[in-house]
Amino acid sequence: MAGGSRAQVNKSHKTRFASKSSRNIHKTSVKDKSKISKPDRNAVKGARAARLQRNKMMREQKRATLLKEKRASSGTTSAPRVIVLFALSASTNVSSLAEDLLALLSNENKGSLFPAVASPEYRLRATVLQAPHGDLMACMEMAKMADLIVFVASANCSSEHGSSNYYIDEFGSQCLSVFRSLGLPSTAVFLQDLPSDLKRRNDLKKTCISSLSSEFPEDCKFYPADTKDDLHKFMFLFKEQRLTIPHWRTQRPYLMAHKVDMVADESGKCTLRITGYLRAHNLSVNQLVHVSGAGDFQLGRIELLKDPCSLNVRKEGDFMDADEVNDLQVIKTLLPDPMKQEPLLVENIPDPLEGEQTWPTEAEMEEADRLHQEKKHNKRSLPRGTSEYQAAWIVDDSDVSGTDSDVDGSENGMVVDEGEHDFNGQSDGGKFDHEFDQASLKLRDYSDEETEADSMMMDNENLTKEQIEEDIRKIKEAHAEDEEFPDEVDAPVDVPARKRFAKYRGLKSFRTSSWDPKESLPPEYARIFAFDNFTRTHKNVLSKARDMEQGSSDECVLANSYVALHINQVPIHIASKLCILGKTMPVIACGLLQHESKISVLHFRIKKHETYSEPIKAKEELIFHVGFRQFIARPTFASDNFNSDKHKMERFLHAGRFSIASVYAPISFPPLPLIVLKSRGDSLAPALAAVGSLKSIDPDKIILKKIILTGYPQRVSKSKAAVRYMFHNPEDVKWFKPVEVWTKLGRRGRIKEPVGTHGAMKCILNGVLQQNDTVCMSLFKRSYPKWPEHWFPMST
């Protein structure tokens, strides 16, 4: 390159000295090309053919599955479809619509007394039910059984004030939200009272559809229902429709009772006989069954009856009368096998001697002596006046540094002052240590009065009207105070705080600190059942249910059969209630999976319903509707934490957010919906309180009740402050000294020493404390649900 030139000049390629072979060395020789394998065209064709064949088989399997479902739901041998007519407002006339539908299905023959109607014209069997407007319980039970819910709206009615829709009143809106929580089956909307003029009819129909379409699923169709021709068109479409039902209804066999009667025996109980069509799955005579509201029972026998409403046998206009329905021919009787029958085990029977201490062996005594000697050599540096009980909860040096610079950590919990061991004016330390240890020995015998007092209402039977109103007023005030100042409590003046809050402890971090789930369990935990691996058990139970369904015909009755269930050992007062109830609303019996009669701790994801304005206190008695089952529970509420294994208890179920409700209840395998009702006395029907779903079954889930003790700065000097009114004696200050304190304006610190004799204390914080700030201390205690007095609503 020339010195003055700026242009880049590259070296020329030296090809004049290269041989011919070196110039072609990068090329592949003809000999090597023959060795390189090429893809086999036949192999490619075979892989493509296999892929096409596999896709074809998958399509055929899906087509066969859909065809099987369609035949099962709409074939001549399937159970009658349940059509529920629900009026969206009180002014809508449903009874005339039900009569027209029955007349259409029965070909104008109104002499049929059987609940199901067979229509040879439509090749369809159906049961038409009218949901009573204003009766929430009946509407819920009908929605659980419905294959099709027909919502009936009147085009010329206006809803009352307080409803969000012009055509839906307040009760209709409430039931719609309940139906959504249960899971909507196939739906349709009937429009009544449309004008005869074609233009006005179309305009009003468009108005109704635009107003109501947001309340229903996207595939919901709207049909006029003023004439029999309109109903005739709907029935032709309905018979070809592929019905969809919620997934939770496909997990267990169930039956809607067409007839309920009982036969008393000599033991003071009776045999309940429920007759109806079996749906969803085959039922084994060895299974347990649940009767809604009554409880879980064993089967005495199952009678397979002649179908009283068969499409293949019946002729047009030939319907079964009442005598024929009562005297149906028994085709086969199935009896349980005592070796295979599922036992009705509800509670575990605890052994009172199981926890008794036995005499230790020599090896155990030698091991205890060795551990004691090691503990002596490894002495920890503790503040004077610290008992062994306190020392067990003090964090070691490896977890917490003793420097003041670590006090301003971001985690809320226990901080131990390792550097300060001498208190000013503490000359009688040895005497106080002895008194402190004696007080700590009595802590386990001191009952926590707040736990019972906060969780139980007074007995309403022994109260006057004024006392009941005063009790309700106090609960409302407590609910409002809990929303404004959550978890804050005052230390009692007459009882030492170390006794009053003996069951509470501090946590270094609510999220990461460990808490032994097996520690200090209540006596009720000896009566419940737990799973080693819930997911594996759930899979095994479902697999066993499938195997049982494929069992012999001597043990199982097929789905869609007309059967009579003979249920043993039913109390007479419960059976008589069911016989009366069966005349006004459906009585449902469902088969239970393995373990589903046993009691455990169930956790539900729950939300307070927007129509319920009264406070719902923790451990109040509520009625839980979980799928087909009903039981009474007294839940504890907790916040739903996704990033922690611990959950903070809530004293009330607050509106507008989801919480976790933990209850002692019979085991139920998810997925299942939840509807919570609250009793309002014998004269009024239960009110809708909350909705949700089953989340998990885990007795080891830790729910912590949090309390906050508050104090106020008396004197402030930079990062030091004298705080009063958190405690009322110096012994309490020394007892709670290992627990970290924090302020509402973001400061964190620790207790240094007590000041005076009235419970004031000196605190060191990580910054300057303002005079208007509040010093707080967080304490935690594990909370458990309340054991109900009765398990099922009809047992009361």
Give me some keywords for this one.
796 residues, alpha+beta, 6-stranded mixed sheet, 6-stranded antiparallel beta barrel, 18 helices, 31 strands, 26% helix, 25% strand, globular
Topology:
Blueprint: H1 20-23, H2 30-35, H3 41-74, E1 81-87, H4 95-105, E2 116-119, E3 124-130, H5 136-145, E4 148-154, H6 170-182, E5 186-192, H7 198-212, E6 221-224, H8 228-239, E7 254-256, E8 259-264, E9 269-279, E10 283-284, E11 288-291, E12 295-305, H9 322-326, E13 330-334, H10 362-377, H11 388-391, H12 429-441, H13 449-455, H14 465-484, E14 488-489, H15 497-500, H16 534-549, E15 556-557, E16 562-571, H17 572-581, E17 588-591, E18 599-608, E19 622-626, E20 629-633, E21 636-639, E22 646-650, E23 658-666, E24 673-678, E25 687-697, E26 702-717, E27 720-724, H18 730-735, E28 741-743, E29 748-755, E30 760-765, E31 775-782
Parallel strand pairs: 1-3, 1-4, 4-5, 5-6, 14-26, 22-26
Antiparallel strand pairs: 2-3, 7-9, 7-17, 8-9, 9-16, 10-15, 11-12, 11-17, 12-13, 12-16, 18-23, 18-25, 19-20, 19-24, 21-22, 21-23, 24-25, 26-27, 26-31, 27-30, 28-29, 28-31, 29-30
Helix pairs in contact: 5-6
